[in-house]
Every structure is written in structure tokens, then in C-alpha cells.
Design brief:
3-stranded antiparallel sheet, Porin, single chain, 21 strands, mainly beta, 42% strand, 526 residues, disordered N terminus
Length: 526
């Protein structure tokens, strides 16, 4: 890259050299040369006694001003070249969508007393407007390094109540304010052309088969929805020996905040809970000639760490000042946290066939293996205020089945007319058993069908408008059989004589819990 100082010296040298050349040239008004040489010899010229150094005359004020102007012009040109080269190393893209949804809910009221029989409600939210914008960044700092990032703003139309305790795993999936949040940002280091090491908030959301519903040619993430769907930080090692086989391993180590560090001023201190660590990986098989893609995945949580989860206070104090939760005393926070609540392992398989006589078909599932260790998160609920064990790992109930099941299947049909704008019809079904553990987060439709312990059905219609814009109308039905979550209050030992209350994942109320959602989405990519 040419520096500005180098340009200045070069320009000055050219100017001085031009001045010297002009002084040595014959004057332009000397007239034509004689036609014939003179007949008499010219007198001999005396030999110079000693050489005289040539000194260029200093430039005039007008010449100096012109020179400075030329230098400034060259500097501007260099700046423009540098800016253009920097922008060439960045690739930008994005998308925007607006969604109009209606919801019908039947089930327990979220405002009911958790220590009493549920209050069943029938609620309808007839008009819910949402919109989201995302900007994607791609950069190649050097031959061996590659950066990927994505910024998102997701909110409801009009005012929105801030979420007091947002989950880091779904920062861009909970509509809040107009602040920009990064749901992805990571760096790939290509140690060799076939081996890469990645660090950061890697693409774990909207993996296969979400590309069917999102009208994409390729999946938006490298991990399938049978494994994970959210925003997570990991370290990945990827090896691709052939074009048909890709092997990937990951390591996650998630820190917990200190309960006494309200202003995050002592983050360097050790938390009362060790990091939650997860080890896993997957193998991808891609056979383009057969339009086949398959993914086998597995992960293991050696110590399922307890979270700081507030629970409703069974005896809330008076609140004459009308303070909001948790300042009103309606919530109780843990007073004892065990080192681990047990272990968990997961094994998953996903298979997809693309463009088989106009159909895209997929099927997948997962088996989970829970092993609670009879430890529980304690709360100050004893009469004397001492800690009482309350929340344990799911399935920590007498006689519970510790093997969980998850099934996910569906497809999409591209209608045989319309060419590039051909309509598409899709349908999906998923099922989760009573104690199934899911690392899926809510989607931009405000629902989380993949983490449901029960069944979910979805049907959608996609109408492409042009290459980057489409309309989608969808209907979603979620039928919940058991309450969700990693932790719950276990049933007492039958030998104690105390009646069971439903365990770590109690059944929903006898009349059931269902959710219907109708949505219309306009999506535009750019």
C-alpha cells in the first residue's frame, strides 16, 4: 500500500526535476537554425576553470499552491482506494419480515396460585403485530480466518414490556425494544483446508429442516433441530475429509452470575455454581446425487448444574407500596445449590430427501438419558427459615422412566406450476415424551413447539413473490400433556405416606392445555 508521505516525496521530486529540465532547454523564441554551417571557424571557447553546481530556483507561491493541491488530490484518491479495499473484505446482506398473528389458548392461567388447583382460562389474542430486521456480516481478514456475524432487532408494534429476566439463549427471539442484539458472531480458523477451529456464538438456530419453512435453498445453521435451536457459545472443531462427509465436535462452558453482584462489577470472582459444561458432536453425510442429507448427533452433560430459579412465595408478605416482582416478596430465591443435579446424554438422527418428484421429506428423532442424583435446589421454606430441597432434575420421581423420546417429521410439496414462483405446501409434526429435555428456544412466532411435552402440528402455505420475497400463511396447534422445564419438584417417596403431586413434570389440568396460532408473514431478503 502506497503511503501518503511516499506520494508527497515523489511528487516534490517530479516538480523539482521538471524545473531543472526547463532551465537547460533552449528558449522557444531563438528562431530557426541556419541553413548552412559558417565558412569561418568559430573562435575557441575558454575551458572552464571549475564546475559550477546547478541550483534550481525555488517554486513561486502559485507553483507551491498548485503542488499542495495536487498532493491533496492524490491523498484523497489513496483514501478512496483504501476504503474500497476494506469494503471489499466485508459482505453485507439482510432480511426484514412483518408478521400478523392470532392466538387462542386454553389451559392454566399464568397468574394462578401454583400451590392450589389451577385456574383454567380461555384466552384469545386476536391481533399481534411483530416485525424483525437482521443484518448479516461476512469478512475474510486473511486467507486462514473467516468471520461471521448477525445483528437483529425484534419487537412488537407499539410499546413493549421489557423482559425482567431474559434468557441469553434467546436474546433475539423475545420481542422487546428496538435495541440491536447479536444472535451470532464467531471466527473460523482454517488450520488446513480440511480442518477448522471455531470460537463464539455459532449458528445453532434455524437448522435443518427449517430451510423448508423459511423458503431457503440451504439450511441457515450447521446443526439440525433434532439437536438444538437457540443462541449458544461454543468452541467447535470441524474436519471434512471428503465432500460427502463432515465431522464436528463442540465444547460448551457456560458461566453463571453471582447472586450478590447486581451491577456485574465483580465478574472476575468465582460464582457459587461451577460452569455448565457440554461435550458433543455430529457427523453429516451429504449425497447430492441422491438428494440425501443425514446427520447423526450426540452430546453429554457430565454435571447438570442448578440454575438460580425463583419460585412463588407460598406466604407472600403484604405489599402496601405496590412494588413489582421480585421486590414485592412474591418470589423466593434459592438458599442452597448442590454442585450437580445429575447427568444427561442425548443421541439424535436426522434424514432429509430434497426434490423427490417435487417433494422435500424429512424425519428425525432423539433419545435422551437422564440420571438424577437425588440432589435438589433448596429454598428457605422451613418454619424457621432454613433451606428445604425443592427442585430436582426432571425424572427424579419414584419409578420414573429416565429415557426420553423426541420425534420430528414432515415435508413440503412444490406445486407443479408457476415456475420460480410456484406455491409450496408444507406440514410438520413433532412429539416429546414426559421428561424430554430440549435446548430449543421460542421462535419469532412467540411459540416453542420443539420443547413441548406432548404433540404439535403445523401446516403452512408459501407464495413466492420474487427471488427474495415471499408470503407465508401458517397454522400451528400445540397440545401440551406435561409441564416443561429442566427441573421440577419430585413426588415424595411412597414410603413416607405423603400423596404425590405430579412430580418433576406434572400433567396439565384435566381439561388439557392447547394453543392455536394463525400467522401471516411477509419476508424480504436483501
Amino acid at each position: 500500500m502506497i503511503s501518503k508521505s511516499t506520494l508527497f516525496v515523489a511528487t516534490l521530486a517530479l516538480a523539482l526535476s521538471a524545473t531543472r529540465a526547463g532551465a537547460d532547454d533552449p528558449p522557444t523564441d531563438a528562431g530557426p537554425a541556419p541553413a548552412t554551417p559558417p565558412t569561418t571557424p568559430a573562435p575557441a571557447e575558454p575551458a572552464p576553470t571549475e564546475p559550477v553546481a546547478e541550483v534550481a530556483a525555488p517554486p513561486t507561491a502559485d507553483e507551491a499552491s498548485s503542488l499542495r493541491s495536487r498532493i491533496r488530490e492524490l491523498e484523497d484518491r489513496v483514501d478512496e482506494v483504501e476504503r474500497h479495499a476494506a469494503l471489499q473484505r466485508l459482505e453485507w446482506s439482510g432480511d426484514y419480515r412483518t408478521t400478523l398473528s392470532s392466538f387462542w389458548y386454553h389451559g392454566a392461567s399464568p397468574d394462578g396460585n401454583p400451590y392450589a388447583p389451577p385456574v383454567v382460562i380461555d384466552d384469545r389474542n386476536q391481533e399481534q403485530w411483530l416485525h424483525r430486521v437482521r443484518l448479516m456480516i461476512k469478512a475474510q481478514p486473511s486467507e486462514r480466518f473467516r468471520f461471521r456475524g448477525r445483528m437483529a432487532v425484534f419487537k412488537r408494534f407499539g410499546s413493549n414490556t421489557a423482559t425482567p429476566s431474559p434468557q441469553d439463549f434467546s436474546e433475539s427471539r423475545i420481542p422487546r425494544d428496538s435495541a440491536v442484539r447479536m444472535d451470532r458472531f464467531w471466527l473460523d480458523w482454517f488450520i488446513t483446508p480440511k480442518l477448522a477451529l471455531s470460537f463464539g456464538r455459532i449458528s445453532y438456530s434455524d437448522g435443518s429442516p427449517a430451510e423448508l419453512r423459511e423458503n431457503l435453498a440451504q439450511p441457515d445453521a450447521t446443526w439440525g433441530l433434532t439437536m438444538v435451536d437457540g443462541e449458544y457459545e461454543t468452541v467447535d472443531l470441524t474436519y471434512q475429509p471428503t465432500r460427502a462427509l463432515l465431522l464436528r465436535g463442540f465444547y460448551a462452558s457456560w458461566a453463571f452470575p453471582r447472586n450478590d453482584d447486581l451491577f456485574s462489577s465483580n465478574l472476575f470472582l468465582n460464582s457459587s455454581t461451577d460452569n455448565l459444561r457440554i461435550i458433543g458432536g455430529n457427523a453429516d453425510i451429504n449425497v447430492p446425487s441422491a438428494n440425501l442429507f443425514a446427520q447423526l448427533g450426540a452430546y453429554f452433560v457430565p454435571k447438570f448444574r442448578p440454575f438460580t430459579i425463583p419460585i412463588p412465595n407460598p406466604m407472600p408478605p403484604a405489599n402496601p407500596a405496590n412494588n413489582p416482582p421480585p421486590l414485592d416478596g412474591s418470589l423466593v430465591f434459592p438458599t442452597s445449590m448442590p454442585d450437580s443435579l445429575g447427568t444427561y446424554a442425548n443421541l439424535s438422527l436426522f434424514v432429509m430427501l430434497r426434490d423427490v418428484a417435487g417433494f422435500d421429506l424429512f424425519a428425525g428423532g432423539a433419545l435422551g438419558f437422564l440420571d438424577p442424583n437425588n440432589e435438589a435446589i433448596g429454598y428457605p421454606l422451613a418454619p424457621d427459615g432454613s433451606s428445604v430441597p425443592v427442585l430436582a432434575l426432571a425424572s427424579a420421581d419414584p419409578g420414573a422412566n429416565h429415557v426420553t423420546k423426541f420425534v420430528y417429521t414432515g415435508g413440503r410439496w412444490t406445486l407443479p406450476f408457476g415456475g420460480a414462483r410456484a406455491p409450496k405446501l408444507g406440514a410438520e409434526y413433532n412429539y416429546g415424551s414426559r421428561y424430554s429435555i430440549s435446548f430449543a428456544q421460542p421462535t419469532d412466532t412467540l411459540t416453542n413447539k420443539l420443547a413441548n411435552r406432548g404433540s404439535a402440528f403445523e401446516a403452512y402455505y408459501i407464495q413466492p413473490i420474487d427471488e427474495r420475497t415471499f408470503l407465508r400463511a401458517s397454522w400451528l396447534f400445540i397440545d401440551t400433556k406435561y409441564t416443561g422445564g429442566f427441573f421440577g419438584a419430585p413426588d415424595p417417596d411412597p414410603a413416607s405416606g405423603q400423596p404425590p403431586h405430579g412430580g418433576t413434570s406434572p400433567p396439565v389440568n384435566p381439561t388439557g392445555q392447547t394453543l392455536h396460532a394463525l400467522s401471516i408473514t411477509l419476508h424480504a431478503g436483501f
